[in-house]
Amino acid sequence: MKGLLPLAWNRCIIRFSNSIARQKAALKLFKKLNMYKITITNKIPANEIEELIKMFVPKGEYELNVEEALANAQSFSVVFEEETISRPVTDFRQEDRPLADKKELKNAIKRGIYTALGRHLGKSLPWGTLTGVKPGKIVRELKEQGFSEDQIRAHMKDYYYLSEEKTELLLEILHTQYPHTKPAAEKSAGIYLGIPFCPTRCVYCSFTSNIPKKDDVERYLAALYKEIEYVGSRMKQTGWRADSFYIGGGTPTTLSEGQLDDLLTKIFGEFDLSDCREFTVEAGRPDTITFEKMKVIKDHGIDRISINPQSMKQHTLDLIGRSHTPEEILKAFETARSAGIGTINMDLIAGLPEEGPEDLMDTLEKVTALRPENITIHTLALKRASRLKMEDERYHLKHGEVLTDMVALSREYMKQSGYVPYYLYRQKYMAGNYENVGYCLPGKECLYNIRTMDEQETMIALGAGGISKRYYSAETRIERSANVSNFEIYIDRIDEMLDRKYQLLFA
Ligand code: SF4
What is the CATH number of domain 182-506? Predict the structure, then answer.
């Protein structure tokens, strides 16, 4: 056993073992030390189980111990100050599925942990035991296996302990996106290109984002052009086709009008985009949007952008490190429309510091009044690298209740305003363990978003921090290859990035 540090604020122990007697002896010791200890075998993916535990208690208040000697977890115990619960894992088996199957074992253990922690802490989670980023894939796969909607409902409830509300949301989304979720044609790919610069850094940011110093952008673009040329020509030679193109970041419109024009000229020159069904530029920060930049985008035939206010409350914008006003958001929207941009997405965040349901509703009222074609409502996710997470480790757990109201109110409001949910994903460390939902006016879904989450198409990512995923349809398997996320290292090692692309896609 590693790390036996008596920590006074620890409250319980969770332990998996193949021997109840062995567990009990160890538990006595841990209890004496007032430890909060979790031990599982190395035969199951400990990370997913840890993700579930973290939704109940913050990291730092438990210790996860992987005991290598155990072949299989057959039982588990949870020791609280007042009681000890010891149960065989088979108690949490579903429909007599064999626990020899790793996936079944993992899910049975997750149900066991969920039940023990949930009962003790008096807490239930809307997403039940699901910890993955793309729960929509599960319902799509069930539908393809021939499950009726009622059978899907029953399975999500019994197998994952999912709330009724989340199952209904997944089913509603499935209806909208199902026509777009067919496996892509062989050698069809979505393309992502990242510009890792922003004018200032938001307090919750954990993306590859930098405030550029003199020459940074030009040096970065030079390396990026090399990758564009390489991937564009290789795709043409080997018969790959771009199905959609997405320029994200960072904030791509941090580029000057001239840089943006050059970049788009380069892209259209190097890639064959004759089959490309959708092209998006994430403008992001309103303080980077000018009429001239919007005209450049429009003149290249691009009709879809994103403007991301996050909130329409000045105090919140100040708190999160944005250097613009709500009025500038409205102006940026008008500017984009006046340049002829036909499809605009707006990103919002529920759960920002010091915001309550009334603030979110106010933001929603102002944003829906503009009638953007897409609105994406995120719930705040704080990854380790964000300043807010460093300042408050428990933030994502504390805001659960206020978010319950916000999420419910926003869903209802969006429905009344004529928007339908069309895609959904979850992240780690989301406030209150909720989700991000993309809404659209009917028929205005963003194809790139749907296909990225559905993972039945190859995604080729260019630029610092881009993760390419090759989809093998015959084996329904994905292989990944990542570019380095630090843009300086990306510039220095650009040839290595090209080699990685070669290995993944063109070898
Ligand atoms: S705009 Fe987005 S990428 Fe840029 S600093 Fe803010 S959160 Fe990070």
Answer: 3.80.30.20
